[in-house]
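Page 42, continued from yesterday. The earlier attempt failed because a stray header line got pasted into the input along with the sequence. Redoing it now with the clean sequence only.
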Amino acid sequence: MNMKKRYLIYIVLVCVILLVPFAGMTFWATNETSENTVLAKWPSLIEDGKLNREYLSGMGEYFDDHFAFRQQMVTVNAVLRGKVLKESSMPKVVVGTDDWLYYNGTLEDYQGKNLMDERQIYMMIHNLKLIQQYVESWGSGFIFTVAPNKNSLYNENMPYYYQKGSESNLVNLTEQMEKAGISYLNLYSLFQEENEIMYFQRDSHWNNRGAVLAYNGLMDYIGKEHETYLNVPYEEKAVHTGDLDEMLYPLAYEPETDYIYDKEWNYQYVNDVTDNMDDWIETVSPGKTGTILMFRDSFGESLLPLIAEEAERGYFSRLVPYNLTQTEQYRPNCVVIEKVERNLIDFIEEAPIMEPVQTEVMSAPEAETDSEIFTDKQGSYLMINGQIDDRYVSEETEIYISLRNSQTMETKTYPAFYVMTEEKFNNGYQIYLKGSSLQPGNYHISTIVQNDGQNMIVASADVPWN
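This time it went through. Structure tokens are written below.
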């Protein structure tokens, strides 16, 4: 065979290989992914009656997500880079030593970068205090707890080029929560006291042994008698698929060992439940006492059976914003909020649905400022939010909302939740007020800031309420 024919065969072969991902979409298109993302949809040529100028780029995005054998090719690339070169092909996954995987979203906490500033720490502590005060006003106990990032506890296998910082949001907040009297269960300390590793190697979460440790901590904090599982036999079985493992190696992940307790569960689901990651789950456990309302994230998946087993009635929510008015509805013995360390900033990004406990009426002069106030009727609630002129915001500025009924002249004042604005400034505020708390009529609403004991009205609005 002469050289020209060899070149021609080589060129044809390369073209065929390059065409397979595109041509194969007819029969083997990729319509599912393990990357926790939404696959692109085929773009429309016409949008809102106009030619879609992003049509070609939309086609490119669709092909990137759906080309044939995508999962297989992603897996081969990931295995070569992860197993051989010890680097990650997936931005969300950090490849550590000894086959350990970590979540990229924890790196800033781990390295002590872009941490909450002093005002943001103050904002979060303030918001937690409002939640605790509200829950306790309805006769319920309150517990806040944080599931530590895996590399906060087990960093021996982190890549050397990621250096552990001397500070973290969790460390800074823990000190302030203790000073503020927040009912806080310190899971970080609880896990540090254990010699056993209680997180998965290729998953971002704790294993069942870790869930039992957190559960026992919660039950002990509540003061509730419970099964400790210290004497319950268990088996070690390779049954768990790690979220990071599946994300990085979609077709080559390996089941990881978990601890399966030899336990006959008595709790039952009240509503239709697909799995323990559902947004809302209600449970009953015959023969048990007490009611627990828990706001949780993915770490609560393995916690739920343990807690549900011990409560006569259990309510478990993954919905945000937290609907804390369910405290009034269900009158639980205890309200638990569990949040993973990497998402602590969530507490100053959006206010929970609840009406804060009223405070005393304030008198204040009115100032000309660039502060803003907005109102919106959301269902049966009046939502008030806005932002404060930067000149009136310092580290410990307090913000209140005052409402005066224009007919009766009755005035109510509430502490506001502190939130960051869309521009990530620390001068935002937000509050939900129950419509049933407001008589029909017109209201004059004022935003009051307090600095060093001095009050000032910085924004106001007149709002009708029916």
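Notes: The domain at 372-465 is CATH 2.60.40.10 (Immunoglobulin-like).
Reminder to self: strip header lines before submitting.
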